[in-house]
Amino acid sequence: MKFKFTRNNNGPSVKSRIESVLRQMLNNSGNLAMNPSTELTRKIIGGTKAREGDWPWQVSLQWSGVHHCGGVLISKKWILTAAHCFTSHSDTRQWTVTFGISTTFPKERRGVRTILIHNNYRPETHENDIALLQLDKEVTFTRNIHTVCLPEATQNIPPGSTAYVTGWGSQKYTGSTVSDLQQARVNIISNNVCNAPSSYNGAILPGMLCAGLSQGGADACQGDSGGPLVQEDERQLWFLVGIVSWGYQCGLPDKPGVYTLVTAYHDWIKQNTEI
């Protein structure tokens, strides 16, 4: 069963309308079987539960066995993530990388050999919020574990275009992380709009990218940091355009998620990984 709505609908109103339709069908037919996997989950913020293999480049970065940040598989031995994930967690021996949609029952685990944080990372302004992890052992690519495409430095990311953010972050501000991977559809927002006085008032710098919904309701949240923002091109190839970086609370109107703009770091990634 599928429900189609315009992209201007927010999560709660969509849920309410779907529940109304289902109640009407139940009243008319007297019986309605529902698959538990289609339940209306609202995790990330305004998101739904991902299926195995949907986002095979997504990884969980775990500190002492507990999910801390997301990351993105870009080769058999390199993970791209956010620098702020390591502000007070720099010991490689305490980090584990897990693969698959569940943090409780992962498909694979790897240790971390090296953490490379951008030399010009500035926590106070969130500039250059990007880092690389080198795995202690290469992963073998499968249908459920493989890389995302990296964009060229010149790749166009038009405002208004659709993107998807994924992660195990909380479903509300100051909430708890979840064990099953979540996904949310958002729209790219221009830096000019994002820098408006009613939004981030000039805090969005050239190496950043905004994505969300103007009315709010779909966003990354705590625990999604370092995870991917991706877009699909006309060839049905998925490209990494952003890394979850920062934002004001989660899912608020005019306060979209702010991402590290991956195209701006094309050369830095290539120099450090030789990909």
Automatic annotation (TrEMBL):
GO MF term set: serine-type endopeptidase activity
Gene3D superfamilies registered for this protein in UniProt: Trypsin-like serine proteases (2.40.10.10)
High-level lineage: Eukaryota, Metazoa, Chordata, Craniata, Vertebrata
Record PROSITE patterns: TRYPSIN_DOM (PS50240), TRYPSIN_HIS (PS00134), TRYPSIN_SER (PS00135)
Domain Peptidase S1: residue ranges: 44-274
Cited SMART domains: Tryp_SPc
Record protein name field: Peptidase S1 domain-containing protein
Entry keywords, A to Z: Disulfide bond, Hydrolase, Protease, Serine protease
Originating organism: Balaenoptera physalus (Fin whale)
Example GO BP: proteolysis
